[in-house]
Amino acid sequence: AFDDDDIVHVEGSVDPVRDIEIIHDELRLKDEELIAPILDKLEKVAVRGNDKKLKPEYDIMCKIKSWVVDEKKHIRFHPDWNDKEIEVLNKHLLLTSKPMVYLVNLSEKDYIRKKNKWLIKIKEWVDKNDPGAVLIPFSGALELKLQEMTDEEKEKYLTEVKTTSALTKIIKTGYAALQLEYFFTAGSDEVRAWTIRKGTKAPQAAGKIHT
C-alpha cells in the first residue's frame, strides 16, 4: 500500500482494495477447482454406486458447491454450517473456509508516522466484506532493515524512530487464527519450539517431538 518507482505492480498501478478483491476471487476459484473432482468421485460411489454411507457427504458437498460456485461466496461467510457439514469441510481443507488475516505492507515512513492514504479504505472494505477479520499494518522494508541489525542496534533504532516491529503481532495473530499454540523443549545445547493445535493433550504433544 505504497508507491515506489522501483517496484512494478502486475496490474500497472497501486490499489490495495482492488488487489484484495482479486485475491478473494482467486481463492474462491481455486476452491471451485478443488470441489469438482471431490464431487465427481463422490457421485460415482454414492450416487451411481449407491453407497449409502457416503451419500450424506455427497449431499453436503453439493451444498458447498452451490455456495461457492453458484452464489460465488467464501465458505467462511456462510451463516450456519452445522456440525456434520463442518466435519466435511475440515476433511477437505478448502481455502475459503480458513480465517483471513489482512497484512498491509506500508513504506517505512508511513509505518513510523502511522499515516497512509490506503489504510482507511482497506479498513472500510474489510469491515464491510469480512467483518471481524484482523488487519495488521507492517513495513517489509523496516522488518528487512531490522533483520540486518544486532539486537542492540535494533533496540536503539526503534527507540529513535518511536516504533516497534510488527512481526510478533503477525505471528501471534496467525497462530490464533489457525487455532495453534506452541510449547518449548530445552536440551543441553538447544531450545526448540513445537507447534501444536489448541487442545492437544500432553501425550499427543510429546508424540510431535518424536516424529
Automatic annotation (TrEMBL):
Record's keyword annotation contains Hydrolase: yes
Residues in TGS domain copies: 179-211
Keyword Magnesium attached: yes
InterPro entries, sorted: Beta-grasp_dom_sf, G_OBG, P-loop_NTPase, TGS, TGS-like_dom_sf, YchF_C
Domain OBG-type G: residue ranges: 1-158
Domain of life: Eukaryota
Pfam families per record: YchF-GTPase_C
The protein's required cofactors: Mg(2+)
Primary location: cytoplasm
Record localization: Cytoplasm
Listed GO MF terms: ATP binding; ATP hydrolysis activity; GTP binding; metal ion binding
Protein name per the record: Obg like ATPase 1
Organism (species): Petromyzon marinus (Sea lamprey)
